Amino acid sequence: xxxxxxxxxxxxxxxxxxxxxxxxxxxxxxxxxxxxxxxxxxxxxxxxxxxxxxxxxxxxxxxxxxxxxxxxxxxxxxxxxxxxxxxxxxxxxxxxxxxxxxxxxxxxxxxxxxxxxxxxxxxxxxxxxxxxxxxxxxxxxxxxxxxxxxxxxxxxxxxxxxxxxxxxxxxxxxxxxxxxxxxxxxxxxxxxxxxxxxxxxxxx
Length: 204
Ligand SMILES: [Fe+2]
Known about the structure:
Blueprint: H1 3-7, H2 17-25, E1 39-43, H3 47-57, E2 62-72, E3 77-87, E4 93-99, H4 102-108, E5 119-123, H5 126-138, E6 144-147, E7 151-157, E8 163-169, H6 173-192
């Protein structure tokens, strides 16, 4: 507290950006953030085709298969489905549903979108990045590389058109993270006001 401002009500202390941020976020954020991604789920036509891609080609292990039925309120009937989970190093999983009825796949598969912005991304080491790249080359599956500046990414489509991204952090990831956390609200406000000037000068 600025004592001079208290003694003279005509002078107001100017809060620092950190103080403004502390007031803005107080009581709004969780006291404990979610620990990690538990799973990210999508729909597949054929679990075995999907397993070959994720386990045999990419090398991510199948760690659980749940076979279940549930009443679907939209269809007003019981549906049977198989739910598979592929493991990440931190315990998180990538999850997939296959329905016994083919029409459920047609109803639930992801809609095509321009540029396929919807995707799941995973942080990997440089060695794993190269290994996955090599596995895809060997399997003759096309992939795309992008250097975003803050990460380098490899993109590949699964047999059901789920876009999967593997990223390697930039060597200065901690510095970049600190800078982005510092201006995240200001940059969001700027862009939403109509100033669409890019702030990623390192993207190639
Ligand atoms: Fe991404």
